[in-house]
Amino acid sequence: MKTLTLTIALIFLFPFIVHAQEMSALAPNEAAGEVGFDFERAYQDYVFTTDVYNNQHSAYLLAKAQYKQAGTLVSQTKAQEETVKMLEARDDVVITYLTSLRMKLSEAEGVSNITKNGLFTRLDAEIAWFSDHKSRIRSAGTLDDLAADSDEASNRFSSLSEVVAYETLATYPFGKLSLMREETNSILSAIKDKIFEVRSNGDKDTAIIERWAFEIENKITRSLDKEIEAQSIIPSLTGPGKGSQRVDRRGFYNSIIFKLDESRQFLRDATEFMNEIIREITTL
Amino acid sequence: MENNQGQAQTPQKKFDIIGTLNKVPGKLMGMFNRLKAQKPKLAEQPQAGEQSQGETVVTSSSAAMPRLRLPKKLIVAGVTLLVFLVLVLVVLKIMQVRSSSPMAVATPTPTPTEIPERVIPSQYADDEDVLEITRRMDNLNKDLNEVSFRDDRLRVPSLDWDVSF
After folding, report:
1. How far is CA A144 from CA A148, B12, B32, B55, in A?
2. What residues in B contact A150, CB-CB < 8 Å?
3. Are B2 and B49 members of one domain?
4. ipTM attached to this prediction
5. Is B128 in the A-facing interface, judged by CB distances under 8 Å?
6. B122, A281: Cβ pair inside 8 Å?
7. B118 — contact with chain A (CB < 8 Å)?
């Protein structure tokens, strides 16, 4: 009887045991519900909140126009409600945007941990500020209070959040580029070893090939120079984002990308030269 | 009014043209008659000389032949017409030749065949290190061509920061 009871109990418990084993096999963060939160997921959140903001912004503009036209208490209340929703949606857009940047940077290769951590701290501070700001919006009693809240967020975004955003956008391409330059240097080193071997064996006159290798070094150096030029622009991103002394951050960001593209072009030239050396070595 | 006058003038012009055309046979007949009249005059000339001088004049056959004196305008018109006809014939002939000539048929442009460069591989062509370098270079080239430093998806959002009532 006891055996029968135990068997029946085991049959009923079997699916739960299997499920528990499957759960324990997962990573701790995955089991906690953070399954696959990567840049793509963060970006989807950003796109979604942007859609919500656009809808709320349209409703806010309509309510504002009706309030300006009618000036009734009903229209005022409606305008206040729509403004609150719009401001909350706007904060959500900033939060999800900065989160997307954070994820992009965390997935970026070639960026040093010091640089990453510095930007993470600043991004997290901005995310926390806008989260706090969002929670305070509903406490505003009047439309003027809401306007003041909006100005506060505007000042914060233009003076700090936008700077961190552009710095992050400009930083992760440096990682890609430095990885590619490292690889170019490494390949060149391997080619030099092979040239040395050819010369030692006396199989071929390597004078010309060695001169070509020197040309490749020059190309890599020029690529590095361009990267340094791009890096020197980054400090220009900081500065007032509003007023007469407004900094054109978009323009500076474009200049950085342009310099990085020039740097990449020098690496392309270097690989072309390396191809020629390989062709020379592999043919008589 | 002007229109009416214009309408009235048009039939008048028509009448004039018809009148002119009607005169053409008459004028042609007049010219013919004048030519006819000149012929006996010329034939009569030697007889008149014989009678007046009382001598026998032996006239040559050429002198006896009447000389047709066509109007200058008629000669010019005739020559012009002849030249015009010749030109028309030449043009027609050219057109005929052109139409009968074979049409230019579009043929594919011959593509130059590249003469393959004769590559004589060295002993390093199959070298392990060289093959590894080539593989790494292919990967690097791919990365260099595919990488994009600008991510347009992450442009700084443009939001409405100006909230005022």
Report:
1. 6, 92, 116, 145
2. 161-163
3. yes
4. 0.76
5. no
6. yes
7. no
